[in-house]
Amino acid sequence: MDFDQLYKEQFPVVYRYLTGLCGNQVLAEELTQETFCRAIEHSASFQGKCRLSVWLCQIGKNCWLSYLRKAKRQAGDEALEQMPSPQNVKDDLLIQENARQIHQRLHALPEPYREVFTLRVFAELPYTQIGELFDKSENWDRVTYYRAKQKIEEGL
After folding, report:
1. Which of 56, 108, 131, 134 is the most buried (most CB within 10 A)?
2. Is residue 13 a contact partner of residue 52, using CB atoms and an 8 Å limit?
3. List of residues 6+ apart from 42 with CB closer than 8 A
4. Domain RNA polymerase sigma factor 70 region 4 type, which positions (predicted)?
5. CA–CA distance from 123 to each of 23, 54, 61, 82, 92 (Å)?
6. pLDDT score of 84
């Protein structure tokens, strides 16, 4: 498969996944471009142990984490100048605490629950495609996603 074909087929999957992670379409597009650049640079490391889309999403996640580290270093004093009001801080802390708890529960899930949930929620993949990624049926994916969701909800 040539790169143009690969890009056309996999761009929507990686873009949706990164949009789910960062919540910003413009940034997600930039990160998706960076993902494909890194994939080309490191194409020899793809060993076929997982689906190509999963490998690309992992590279995308690493791009997102690199972006966050860089943004954190650059923020410095700018963050102090833009401090929100006390009420906004309280609301933001509640939202952050809920998000933190959800992410902790998500990352504590064993595989394949964690990956199925991530692909369904963040990458917005349909059940049929997720099932194909794992060489399982669509019903297997639905049940696995439902159980992952239950396990996350149990801890909240």
Report:
1. 56
2. no
3. 59
4. 100-152
5. 12, 10, 11, 32, 25
6. 47
Domain edges within the chain: 1-79, 89-155
- In tens, the pLDDT along 42-97 reads 877 777 667 888 888 889 988 988 888 888 777 654 544 454 445 555 565 666 66
CATH architecture of the domain formed by 89-155: Orthogonal Bundle (1.10)
Contact yes or no for 10/53 (Cβ under 8 A): yes
Q: How many CB atoms lie within 10 A of CB 102?
A: 14
Say how far apart CA 57 and CA 41 lie, in whole Å.
Answer: 15
Q: Say how many CA atoms lie within 13 Å of 65 toward its Cβ.
A: 6
Mean pLDDT to the nearest integer, 132-136: 83
